[in-house]
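Researcher: Structure prediction, please.
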Amino acid sequence: MNIHIIGSGGREHAIARKIADSPQLSKLYMAPGNGGTSSFCTNVNIGVGEFEKINDFIQSNDIDMLVVGPEAPLADGLVDYLKKDNANEKLMVIGPCLEGARLESSKDFAKQFMVANDIPTARYRSFTSENVEEGCRFLETLNAPYVLKADGLAAGKGVLIIEELEEAKVQLKEMLINSKFGKASVTVVIEEFLSGIELSVFIITDGNNYVILPEAKDYKRIGEKDTGLNTGGMGSISPVPFANQTFMQKVEDKIIKP
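Model: Predicted structure follows.
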């Protein structure tokens, strides 16, 4: 098989490294790739948002499978764009269509989806610049700390966890009125803070069947002992010590299946 991977980060690098070990692989390409991936696959000078160039490359290099790593091209509809071309009828794509990608690209949509499907989630409301004062009043109904989330993609940096109510109000206005996170914060989700430890559970699905991949736990706050601002992730561990069989069955029953 000829396989083409979209992306350049650690996630795509890891995926490429494992695919490179497959006996079914003929040729492996990565766009744009990074310095490390050039040692075991062919880097291609195409940006993740250059849909037309990606499509041309797929067809001119007889690509059998496309793996899309970053969220942005999925949220911008890369899969839908490729599927519209009849020449890609047999192309296998690992990555959701535009509608499926909304679960990642819009926190407001994801919250609505969870509520509609009885998936446990924190109490929340969403606000725009038109009802920012209403958002400030909603903050007053919550206990500290206060969680503000930019609705759209913000490279893992669109979540603020704030201890003081007045500062939370200031930051809400910064996000909605002064566009602190650009287009990502046109809508802001204010969420009830849930205390505890977290982990990420990953699945691959075709829409009907699914396979659960190994879970991981990351550390987002930049300071020692979980102080400081949230980041896209300061490192992670896998497997996760507390994710035993009972816990994972609960995750499967209450979240994955719904």
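Model: Residues 165-176 form the longest helix (12 residues).
Researcher: Thanks, that helps.
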